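FAQ

Q: What does a record look like?
A: Structure on top, sequence underneath. For example:
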């Protein structure tokens, strides 16, 4: 079959993210013998014209839509991405009569919401590599056989039980040849590579276990290194982002990946998300030796009180050790904080800054406000119990939890706190013209990480 896969994401802040999910599904379909084209909407000015042109020149037999995000996941800049996807979907419905298929992480977060509103012919819950290829075979053979991971508007009950969890060594490497990475790389982006899927943690607000399951599924380090080599060969100046929810969620596997990259003398610079659990000097040195040029630490909180409330899998002492190990290894580090959790107070914000000031200083601290409330999370239950959500609240649309203990204007207080430290920034900084200009210049000259010198913004520009 000839298939069109549409990457619907158009958000480019803070940098454009290449459609790894769509490329992974495309690779699986190509391996199964199908002809696949990818229409990436990230840099396209008129999605309508681009889709019209694509459908005019090719006779597709199925069209898939990869939905990366449901919304901006930002309390300060709330934006739903539904309308953008809806317009592309309705254009396709008007221009062709072939089966239309929804999928992607943004879809899986709220599958019922998408199905009720768009009425696709089919939809795929969770990871799509295996389910999508089986669905194409079913469409081609006019079969009515039930496929794990595939639902329709007529069969969308108990959706999460449908999700397929393939072993990663059994699926094809992402079809990077179908992505025009040059523009991504020139605007601060990366080539995405996964070393594992799944999340064994139970943070009260997070939907990663829902998207990928609790069980960790690993890629062989050799296959990961092969993909690094492929990236370096196909792109003259490559940067990789390891897109695991937490790269070191299994320390031994993270070390194995690093040692394989070192053994092959990989020259590809890369970044990753990490957390402080079992993060020590040995791992930091191995990452540095393997080409790591930056780490984003998803802490969200730093006090033992709030770490326990959020059910984070580490303690304050782990944060101190991790930051010291990264500093000693010379790896640039950004810390991500998320204030507003249950029971948090203004005093907790002040104490968080005092604690970080006692640690090895990170290059950047991004302090956000508000926890996005997703369905089927512990935070949803807390918010409903406290009366923050009405019984009819539809979590397809953005709803946020912010502790009443942060007062009537929490962003103002957080901004005042941030101004005490040059490396800190908050949502009050991010939309400023000066910030956007600096970011554009940094991306233009190719600096990675783009937050490496964030302290200079606070020192010379913000004040």
């Amino acid at each position: 079959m000839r298939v069109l896969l549409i990457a619907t994401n158009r958000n480019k802040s803070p940098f454009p993210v290449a459609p790894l999910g769509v490329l992974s599904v495309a690779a699986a379909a190509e391996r199964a013998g199908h002809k696949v084209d990818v229409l990436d909407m990230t840099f396209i000015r008129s999605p309508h014209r681009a889709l019209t042109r694509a459908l005019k020149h090719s006779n597709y037999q199925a069209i898939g839509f990869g939905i990366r995000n449901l919304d901006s996941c930002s309390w300060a800049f709330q934006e739903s991405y539904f309308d953008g996807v809806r317009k592309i979907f309705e254009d396709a419905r008007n221009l062709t009569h072939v089966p239309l298929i929804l999928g992607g992480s943004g879809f899986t977060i709220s599958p019922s919401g998408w199905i009720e509103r768009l009425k696709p012919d089919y939809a795929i819950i969770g990871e799509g590599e295996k389910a999508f290829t089986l669905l194409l075979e079913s469409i081609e053979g006019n079969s009515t056989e039930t496929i794990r991971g595939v639902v329709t508007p007529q069969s969308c009950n108990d959706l999460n039980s449908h999700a397929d969890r393939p072993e990663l060594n059994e699926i094809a490497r992402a079809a990077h040849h179908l992505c025009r990475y040059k523009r991504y790389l020139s605007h601060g982006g990366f080539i995405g590579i996964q070393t594992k899927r799944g999340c064994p943690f139970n943070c009260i607000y997070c939907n990663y276990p829902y998207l990928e399951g609790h069980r960790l599924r690993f890629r062989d380090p050799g296959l990961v290194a092969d993909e690094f080599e492929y990236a370096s060969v196909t792109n003259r100046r490559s940067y990789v982002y390891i897109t695991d929810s937490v790269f070191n969620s299994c320390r031994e596997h993270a070390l194995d990946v690093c040692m394989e990259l070192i053994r092959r003398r990989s020259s590809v610079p890369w970044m990753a998300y990490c957390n402080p659990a079992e993060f020590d000097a040995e791992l930091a040195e191995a990452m540095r030796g393997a080409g790591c040029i930056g780490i984003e630490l998803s802490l969200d909180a730093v006090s033992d009180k709030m770490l326990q409330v959020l059910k984070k899998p580490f303690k304050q002492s782990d944060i101190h050790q991790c930051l010291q190990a990264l500093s000693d290894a010379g790896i640039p580090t950004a810390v991500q904080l998320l204030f507003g959790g249950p029971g948090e107070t203004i005093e907790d914000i002040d104490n968080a800054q005092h604690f970080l000031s006692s640690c090895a200083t990170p290059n950047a601290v991004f302090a956000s406000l508000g926890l996005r409330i997703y369905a089927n999370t512990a935070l949803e239950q807390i918010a409903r119990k406290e009366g923050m959500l009405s019984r009819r609240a539809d979590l397809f649309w953005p709803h946020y939890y912010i502790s009443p203990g942060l007062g009537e204007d929490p962003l103002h207080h957080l901004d005042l706190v941030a101004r005490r430290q040059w490396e800190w920034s908050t949502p009050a900084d991010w939309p400023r013209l000066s910030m956007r200009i600096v970011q554009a210049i940094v991306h233009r000259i190719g600096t990675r990480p783009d937050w490496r010198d964030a302290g200079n913004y606070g020192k010379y520009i913000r004040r």
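Q: Is there anything notable about this one?
A: Residues 190-462 form a domain with the pyruvate-formate lyase- activating enzyme fold (CATH 3.80.30.20).
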